[in-house]
Structure formats: structure tokens, C-alpha cells
Amino acid sequence: MSYSLSDYDFELPPELIAQEPAGRRDESRLLVLFRATGRLEHRLFRDLVEYLVPGDVLVLNETRVIPARLRAKKAGNGGEVELLLLRQLEGECWEALVRPGRRAKPGTRLVLGGGLAECVVGERTGTGGRRVYFSSPLPVSELIARLGEVPLPPYIKKYPQDPERYQTVYARRDGSVAAPTAGLHFTPELLERIEKSGVKIARILLHVGLGTFRPVRVEDITRHHMHAEYYEVSPEAAEVINGARAGGGRVVAVGTTSVRCLETVAGEDGRVKPGAGWTDLFIYPGYRFRAVDALITNFHLPRSTLLMLVSAFAGREKILAAYRVAVEKRYRFFSFGDAMLIL
Q1: 110 pairs with which residues across the strands?
Q2: Residue spans of beta strands (DSSP E) within 23-129
Q3: pLDDT per residue as tens digits for the range 240-299
Q4: How far is CA 332 from CA 296, 325, 342, in A?
Q5: Domain boundaries along the sequence of the chain
Q6: In a 10 Å sphere around its CB, with 0-12 CB exposed, 13-18 middle and 19+ buried, how is residue 228 labelled?
Q7: Do the beta carbons of residue 118 and residue 111 sit within 8 Å?
Q8: Of 34, 176, 216, 291, which shows the fewest CB atoms inside 10 Å?
Q9: CATH number of the domain at 69-147, please?
Q10: Do domains 5-65+160-342 and 69-147 have the same CATH topology?
Q11: Which of these CATH numbers, 3.30.499.10, 3.40.1780.10, 3.40.50.720, 1.20.1740.10, describes 5-65+160-342?
């Protein structure tokens, strides 16, 4: 078992980092990896239905990305500051990333929307963010709706013409600062085909926050700590998932966020329990999966916790071998890129 950060690195030509989504969501390419043998198949995402069988359950994370990036100016000198809101703490106080931090020491007053609102930057949180205290006649939720921008990852240099392409078609619950990107490939038509084939669909929730994307800065990955993210599993979703397992069907998680949510609420017997809370579960090789049988995921950044999770699921050597083939075959990587199905 490898716990060294450097063992989760790989070479990626920069031109393979997708800058825009595929013309149609389900026209993305799909690399199918069979864990038992390491065999690979090259398909399109719309072919996914051919790998699912009646009795399986497809688990979707229905979180929706909020326009959490706010642009502000320092009161007085007008210096530009960017806020990335992570979560509401209490009242009108939020945890946020503040950039550049040197411009916003504790006590700094910021102006938003040409005077529509103000906020004061406070102390650091225990997870590396800052407390930000808003003052406005409008609730922060309305400020976000009026002034906010959807926060795209820094490796995407061009804002999409249609911002909805950075949302899944089944997104329902506002709260994420990044999309659960494995779900971006689904269309309503594909979901309908899947259901008509006899596959159940369960909808759960995990709001994607800093934990999913915080870089690992320690060589011994077991010393990395995840930032907690909010999850919910309804009694209805738990019933569908447990019913599929009892009937011999597979639990097919759409995305690493769905995996972390399901594994958080799964008992030793694999049954999931309904509930809500915060999870800081960090999955890396050596982890014993209890609830998830198959995984749909995108291609992840080198040295990331996401790459470690898929390596735990399929084996580090098989994943890195599949990534080498994906590079050779010119698959598109990261958020707007192509997908993998790991069986």
C-alpha cells in the first residue's frame, strides 16, 4: 500500500485539460475499467446504459453550485479583493477564502456591488478560511444571487457561454462551491433510458466544499485532514439503495462525492442509514468499501484526494495505467473532460 504523495503523480499534457464541455453532455468519451482484470474499453458516455442491469441503483448527488465568488473593493483605497464563500456559519457570518489575503487583514472593510453591501474580514477559521461578517439590507443569499459568479476551477480559463453546463441536469439543492462533475455528462433523455431499463435512481446530497479540492501538502497522505462537507440521505433514498443491495443489484455511485456520502452512512453490513450531518471522510488505498460497487467519475488532478479515492476503489497501479492510456488516446481531463466507469 502506498501512502506517499509522490506516488499519486502523473504527467499530463496541458492541452488535455478540457476548457469547455462537450457539444452534447452525453457525447463525452467513456473509459470503462474492469477492476478485476484491468481491462479497458473505449466508449461514449451515452453507452453507459449498456453496462447497467435491471436491479442496479444509480446514486446521484443533487447539489447545485451557488454563485459563491464575490468581487469586492477595499473601503478607502479601492483595492480589489475576491471572496469565495464556503459555508454559512451563523447569521450573516460566512466562512470564505479571501484573495489576496495580504490585502484583507482582520478588520478590513470591503464594499460590494458599488455600495449595495459591506463586509468586514475577521479571523481565520480552523480550516484555513476566514470569517466574513456581512452588513446589508439584503440577506446574503440575495447578494449572492445578484452579485455572485459561479466559481470555476482555476485551470478553466474561459467562462462557459452557458453557465448551466457547469450544473448537472438534476441539480436541485443550492450549496456547493464546485460541481460534482461526474454528473455533468447526464442528459434527461439518458436518465430516462436508464430508468426504463430497470435501473433505480436514488438522489442524495453532499455539498461540495473546500474538502474535496484542498491540496494535499504532506508527503505522508495519512496525515492529510479533509475539510468537513454537509450531506443528507433521505429515508426514501436509503430504502431504494438498500432494496437494490438486498435484491442482488449493484450500487453505482455517480462521482466521488456520492461515494463519500454513501460510505459515511454505511454500516458494516453495507446498508446505508438515512441521516444528515458533516463528513470529513478521507478515502485512500487500504480503505474497505462497504456500500459502493461501481463508480462513474471524471479524470482527476495529480496528487489529489480524488485520485487517491479512485485508487482506493480500483487499485493505484490500475488507475495510473488507465490514466496513461487516457493520455495516449487523448481523453479530455478534469471538470469539463471525459469520464470513467469503474466496474
Answers
A1: 74, 119
A2: 29-33, 40-44, 57-61, 63-65, 69-74, 80-90, 93-99, 109-112, 117-124
A3: 999 999 999 999 999 999 999 999 999 999 999 999 999 999 999 999 999 999 999 999
A4: 15, 12, 17
A5: 5-65+160-342, 69-147
A6: middle
A7: yes
A8: 34
A9: 2.40.10.240
A10: no
A11: 3.40.1780.10
Closest CA to 325 of 67, 77, 50, 40: 40
Q: How many CB atoms lie within 10 A of CB 182?
A: 25
Select from 308, 330, 335, 315 the least CA-distant residue to 9: 308
Alpha carbon distance 195, 58 (integer Å):
9
- Helix, strand, or coil here: 5? helix
What are 11-58's pLDDT values in tens digits? 999 999 999 999 999 999 999 999 999 999 999 999 999 999 999 999
C-alpha cell at 313: 476503489
Query: In the numeric block, which cell numbers belong to residue 258?
Result: 456520492
Q: Which residues are CB-neighbours of 173 under 8 A, at least 6 positions away?
A: 62, 63, 64, 205, 207
Q: How is residue 238 written as a grid cell? A: 436509503
| Three-state DSSP class for residue 275 | strand
DSSP state letter for 303? T
* Contact call for residues 206 and 230 (beta carbons, < 8 A): yes
Q: What is the pTM of this model?
A: 0.93
Reported as a single tens digit per residue, the pLDDT across 74-122 is 998 889 999 999 988 988 999 999 999 888 899 999 999 999 999 999 9
Q: What's the residue count for the chain?
A: 343
Instruction: Return the amino acid letter for 170.
Output: Y
What is the spatial distance between Cα 309 and Cα 317, in angstroms, rounded to a whole number? 13
* DSSP letters spanning 210-259: HHHHPPP--SBGGG--PPPEEEEE-HHHHHHHHHHHHTT--EEEESHHHH
Place of cell 442491469: 53
β-pair partners for 64: 174
